[in-house]
Amino acid sequence: MSRTTHRMSHADGRMSRADGRGGHADGRTSHADGRTSHTDGRTSHTDGRTSHTDGRTGHADGRTGRAAEPLSPAGAPRRPGHAHSPRRARPLLTELRRGAGLPAGAATLAVLLFTMYTKADDWLSGWTETANMLRVAGLVLGAPLAAAVACWQGGRERRRRTEELLATVARPPLRQALLAAAPAVVWPVAGYLLTAVVCLAWTWQYAGGDGPHLSLIVADATGIGSLAALGFVVGRVVPWRLAPPVVALVMYNVELLLSNQESGVSWLSPGKEHVSTWGRPVWWFGPVSMVWTAGLAAAALLAYAARRRARALALAPLAAAATAAVLLAQTGDGLWRPDPANEALVCDEGTPRVCATRVHSRMLPDASRALAGLTAKLRDVPNAPARIVEAPVDTQARRADAALTGWDMYFRRNRIAEPEMFAANAALGATARHCRGVSDADRYSDLSEAVAEWLAPMPRPENVPRGETEPGFTRTLKRLKTMPDGERTRWLGEYFAAARSCRLNEVSAP
Fold first, then answer.
1. Are 169 and 176 in contact, with CB atoms under 8 Å apart?
2. Would you place residue 119 in the very low, low, confident or very high pLDDT band (cuts 50, 70, 90)?
3. Is the pTM of this model over 0.85?
């Protein structure tokens, strides 16, 4: 009995221990449930943030009116690629790529390059000649062409019957006009500047002196663009299909009319050229010329395209243009002034020395060779000219020099083209002095021309001999050719001494 009772107690103890273990397991289960609840809370928090993000995305989609962006496998929205991003409209580039502007620029470039190439021998000798030729070609030929194209461009909306439609656009009328005029202004100017770059690079091989006149190049480009802008305004205002050629013709004739005036008004013509090789423009000539032409164009554009309340602003560029015009007209030929640096002499080492101005210094080697025979005859003659110089140089300083003008007429690209004529004119410069009040002008002329003919004969056609109506010249020349060297040298020394002092009446005939 007792043994049975003891066994039951022992079983009850084991059950109690099992119950304890179960309680312990139940506690662990409760702890796991708590962790699960905590995890569920974090998941709910994450879902809330996701819902918040989705709400913001939906709000953004609602504002833009676009469909929701597709999601990546990770759930994040895909960023749009560069190729699919919207492009920003650029109306200026669109205008420049279409219309008559680009063909007009190509035509301007072709006309100017052809003109400059056919006249290359006339301007390659110096920077001033290059600037003058560019100005004539660009302003007299290129500007009327650009103005005619711009006039045609100005009537584009009228021909397309889109004027009323453009009036409803939010873009201001002045901006519309500037955008429409841009191709007809920009491309001809670009054609001129490209021509200028080509010509200046070409001139660099031949010209001496101080360098190109870049301010005049920019002023000429501004003039072409300004005249094109004026043609555009005419095209907008005048509803006539023949307006473009009429504009070109009028502009061409007005430029020629102004440039041919004998007063300072001639400098109001954009195509007015300067004829002095040794001059240099005053520093403000280019900027003031730009104000003159650009002021007229700006006033015309503002008067036409600005809003009614802003049209009074056109008076400002008009006043600036008027001031510039007065300054140019009053200064006149003073816009170009002598440049001592360009007039400086560069001489060879011969006797007599042959000297060229710095502008034509690259002509000196050929000039020395062409005058070799002349200098050999003068080398041992007393009182002979010490130098043969290019004029105008030291016109009143050294009477012992022989002056020779117009070197560029005898040279082509620094190479002498007419050596005999060059030497003959140098001989005339050495013998023929400008003496006033000569008592016996015929005898003076006969002696001087005979000495020059002996030094360097003047080339003449075979069928045009010097007539027998000049017995004094013929007799003196014949005598010079047959005289002994010593006697001829002595007589020539007396002749040059008397010629220098303008007293040829004291010299007896040889």
1. yes
2. very high
3. no
